[in-house]
Amino acid sequence: MRHLKTRLLAGILILFTAANVVAYNHAWRMSHFVSGGIRTQVPEKLSGLSKIGVLVMGVTIPKPVNLRKPSDVGLPYRTLIIPGGSTEQLEAWAIESAATRNWVLLFAGYAGVKSQLLEEAAEFRTMGFNVLLVDLPGSGGSSGSTTSIGYHEGADVAASWRYAVANLHPQKIFLYGRSMGAASVIRAVSAFGAQPSGVILECPFDWLLDTVANRFRIMGIPAFPGAQAIVFWASVQQRTNYFDYSLSREAARVSCPALLMAGQNDTRATVPEARAVFDALKGKKEWLLFEGAGHQQYLTYNREEWRGAVKRLVIN
Known about the structure:
Blueprint: H1 2-31, H2 48-57, E1 78-83, E2 89-95, E3 102-107, H3 118-126, E4 130-134, H4 153-167, E5 172-178, H5 180-191, E6 198-202, H6 208-218, H7 226-238, H8 247-251, E7 258-263, H9 271-280, E8 285-290, H10 298-301, H11 303-314
Helix pairs in contact: 1-7, 4-5, 6-7
């Protein structure tokens, strides 16, 4: 009987250790981009066998690269190097005209790059704004190979804002962010002193734990205790308490005008999460829900709705 108990305890210890090794690896691979390889497909496109492989080995995310330039869509630009807030330097594209001193700074989502926002940049130029597209740390032309899912990137958005104030001589500056970019924008204002004329937020999550848990649910797998283990090890690796990382808490310190857009069928940053962030915002604000949309680019989903809401914020 004693030997049976010993073996049982040993088995439990082995399983516990193995589960934590897997969770540690997941946390590392989600936050560290690699120099090569093929990116793991989104959960919805994974086969059953592929899901098992991802659960055991974690995701593979090569460092994101810019596949297009503004000139590819007819936008003259210049490349700027900005001192980062959490990294050595940020690469940015300035698309500008002498006819205006109003600027919009754009930031992409998780594992995204500035070239993914060229359509939005073109829209803002049509509205009469200069545009600064910035690669967040680890992505595109910016230094580093890690991401903190918006937590430390808030310092980089704030650094970009300060650079624009000091060097671009703006009359107004708006900050635009999609998904993790939206999280970074909120953090820039709430924690790092950015004072924009307004913010445009697309599909932000609320609690980081919930957004990790959502990934499990998309794969049809119970989130507990895997999501908690990943967030724990991510906290250890980045020396940050990610269990306390909530954008609705951060939004409670944002009082500038804001537009928040969400997708009705978003399974990554759900409507209740986005609504919690919106409700916490303290200043003048507008909520826009895109019916039938998921976690995606809202400009191309419904151009007229997007354009109308953005104009109400930035043009007055």
